Amino acid sequence: MKLLEGKRILVNGVANEMSMAWAVAKKAAEMGAEIAMPFGSERMEKRVRPLAESIGAKFIMPCNVQDDAQVDALFDAIKKDWGGLDGMLHAIAFSDRDELQGRYADTTRANFKNTMDVSVFSLVDLTRRVSELMKNGGSIVTLTYLGGEKSIPNYNVMGVAKSALDSSVRYLAADLGKDGIRVNAISAGPIRTLASSGVGGFASILELNAKMTPLRRNMTLDDVSGAAVYLFSDLSSAVTGEVHHVDCGYSSTGMIPNDLKDVLLKGLDAE
Ligand code: NAD
């Protein structure tokens, strides 16, 4: 018996083969789950459809979370054909890339609202809808980043959105626990994707991160999908309201390692 045999999981947030959501969908399918895989905008369909078809995913249809008619249509279709769901991955975030550099203090009202709507309110809205289809309990997983707990250069308004996302996980877990529905976040380490390429200086974050984590490497797609499979499975049956770090230990440290410290100080002295 495979770990996710008999489970039906809605995976939101696949844009291409580099997406963390794709890694999760693929691994969950390998573990026996049936996958629903909508795409966030019409222009994503060309890339998403062949990926979805390669794992036999269903509901390959548009689901822009800011378009209620599209979200309604997705949930109507799932309700009609499947009747229920056991899991949902929320891997959705958006912000104006011009504001993912420079100062947080310069964030505009329009982009603040839009970032929160796409990246945070979508979890609330999708969770409410999905919970109505989870008659036998279920597991909801979102993806967050350390920038919601600590300030990270350039992450700016997206960090504030991740704080609200982490907090939403706790409130949603409290609402839905009595129905056997668990809600958790995976706080992933940095990895190159379409979304992360919009964050200013991301290449140097990746390079430095690999040298600073206790495991002295960056997180991989396999690392994140393995953690998601655990959270979707019954192995994590008592875990809810949690932000689970899958970041090679980076968030557990409070100072750069000694070997790097010496290099940094020498470099600064030379200036
Ligand atoms: P990605 O670009 O592959 O995925 C982002 C997804 O958000 C895309 O599929 C896009 O279609 C979707 N999206 C954006 N606006 C949408 C809308 N209005 N409606 C529906 N979907 C919409 O990048 P990713 O890095 O895999 O991002 C997935 C999640 O992981 C995001 O929440 C991101 O913040 C988070 N995360 C990323 C990293 C990283 O370093 N890449 C680290 C930690 C957390």
In short:
By secondary structure, the chain is of the alpha/beta class. It has eight helices and six strands, in the order E-H-E-H-H-E-H-E-H-E-H-H-E-H.
Class based on secondary structure composition and strand pairing: alpha/beta
E-strand count: 6
| Uncertain stretches | none
Bound molecules: nicotinamide-adenine-dinucleotide
- N-to-C CA distance: 61 Å
Query: What portion of residues is helical?
Result: 40-55%
Q: How large, in whole angstroms, is the Cα Rg?
A: 19 Å
Put simply, the count of helices is: 8
The neighbouring-strand order within the major sheet is 2-1-3-4-5-6
Task: Please summarize the sheet with the most strands.
Answer: 6 strands, parallel
What coarse outline follows from CA principal-axis ratios? globular
Strand fraction: 5-15%
SSE string: EHEHHEHEHEHHEH
Integer average pLDDT = 97
What does this structure look like?
The protein has 271 residues and is an alpha/beta fold. Helix content is 42%, strand content 11%. The chain has eight helices and six strands; from the N terminus they run βαβααβαβαβααβα. A six-stranded parallel beta sheet has the order 2-1-3-4-5-6, with helices on both faces. Strand 1 (8-12), helix 1 and strand 2 form a beta-alpha-beta unit. Helix 4 (109-131) runs parallel beside helix 5 (156-176). The chain is globular and about 65 Å long. The mean pLDDT is 97. Bound molecules: nicotinamide-adenine-dinucleotide (NAD). The site of nicotinamide-adenine-dinucleotide (NAD) has 27 residues, from helix 1 and strand 4.
